[in-house]
Amino acid sequence: MYRNKNLLEVVRLSPCQHCNIADGTVVAAHSNQMRDGKGRGLKAHDYRIAALCFTCHAELDQGRDMSREERLNMWEAAHRRTVGWLFENDHITVRFS
What we know:
The protein is mainly alpha-helical and 97 residues long. It has helices spanning 5-10, 54-62, 68-88; strands at residues 27-30, 49-52. A two-stranded antiparallel sheet has the order 1-2.
């Protein structure tokens, strides 16, 4: 299981990658999919995260207004934008050995 505290912390600097708000409540929302390492009492890998504010994160995890497919699509889009934000803001770089 991949864990990286620094990655989770730097995501807090991002605006919400779903609604674009920057209200100080943004956290790294882990994937809820088993394919990403999610299991009973186990979070997915730390690289399978989306920067989401409290409201969007709650809607994703407990919301009743979206279907399962809509929640999956919401998370996937926010995840892609989060990875882009991390690279574009030089929080992730590629090293050559």
